[in-house]
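Lab meeting, item 3. Inverse folding demo.
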């Protein structure tokens, strides 16, 4: 990749470096699923933003209600990744002039009704239109949240050590496939499951995020943040029907919880299966490396999962 190519991972590293000089009230700077700020000595809140670009994250002919719903659910999944609870959302949309009033109202209904369903009301935002026809619609949601645990602890991406278990909720793979049932459009954000895991495991739950770009890439993020590597056991991966281990670690848009813990987690939370899929391991010279053990052989997972790049055609839902 040339220095002029656009890379999501490289930009995130840049944002993290620039975020080191933020004021002290910023308790969690850029680099996690949500940022956290202190209002005073005891009160904290979290904030995050995510977007849906039509033609990139969803098909261009997708139902506008479903587009609005996904825009909210993606943010709610980030709340779950921190073991937090949502408070409210704001939404902005830049629409193509090709869209009509009915389409825009259906989009709003998806945002509004999904927010209400998760006690996260839509309280404001902004609307604009592109100047040119044929330009993609962009819907962005900002979400506010509070810690969900009794002790006010949130779970970040930092904390995993060599020897810690790697586990995941639910099942993986196939969310973008034509026969995938549209899972990437309507999925349950694991808010209650995350808070329950944090309560059950306590300080033995040491790091967590939600699987949006695939287990391989998201596990690498946990590993990189902590200077370790990851070994995943292919036979342990909870695959959706019709998916093999490569789909399970590479497809993305699963929105399940991927976490590191110091002791064995419960086998299920509120009826949702929880599966240990591997361990973190020492990687002094190669932090962030993810390897999958397949029939006794180790396969490097580099390249599996979704990475936004300037010259790449991504999934369109």
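The presenter then showed the designed sequence:
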């Amino acid at each position: 990749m040339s220095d002029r190519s656009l890379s999501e991972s490289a930009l995130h590293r840049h944002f993290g470096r620039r975020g080191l000089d933020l004021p002290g009230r910023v308790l969690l700077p850029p680099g996690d699923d949500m940022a956290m700020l202190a209002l005073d000595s005891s009160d904290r809140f979290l904030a995050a933003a995510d977007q849906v670009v039509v033609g990139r994250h969803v098909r261009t002919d997708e139902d506008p209600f479903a587009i609005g719903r996904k825009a909210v659910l993606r943010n709610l999944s980030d709340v779950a990744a921190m073991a937090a609870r949502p408070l409210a959302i704001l939404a902005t949309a830049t629409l193509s002039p090709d869209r009509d009033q009915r389409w825009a109202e259906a989009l709003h209904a998806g945002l509004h009704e999904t927010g209400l369903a998760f006690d996260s009301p839509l309280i404001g935002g902004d609307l604009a239109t592109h100047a040119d026809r044929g330009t993609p619609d962009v819907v962005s949601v900002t979400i506010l949240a509070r810690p969900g645990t009794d002790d006010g602890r949130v779970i970040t991406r930092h904390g995993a050590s060599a020897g810690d278990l790697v586990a995941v909720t639910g099942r993986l793979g196939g969310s973008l496939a034509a026969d995938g049932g549209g899972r990437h459009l309507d999925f349950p954000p694991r808010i209650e499951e995350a808070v329950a895991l944090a309560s059950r495991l306590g300080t033995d739950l040491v790091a967590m995020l939600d699987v949006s770009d695939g287990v391989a890439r998201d596990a690498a993020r946990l590993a990189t943040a902590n200077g370790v590597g990851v070994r995943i056991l292919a036979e342990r991966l909870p695959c959706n029907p019709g998916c093999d281990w490569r789909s399970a670690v590479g497809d993305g848009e699963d929105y399940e919880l991927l976490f590191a813990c110091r002791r064995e987690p419960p086998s299920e939370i509120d009826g949702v299966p929880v599966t240990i899929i591997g361990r973190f391991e020492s990687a002094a010279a190669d932090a962030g490396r993810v390897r999958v053990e397949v029939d006794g052989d180790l396969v490097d997972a580099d390249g599996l999962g979704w990475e936004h790049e300037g010259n790449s055609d991504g999934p369109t839902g």
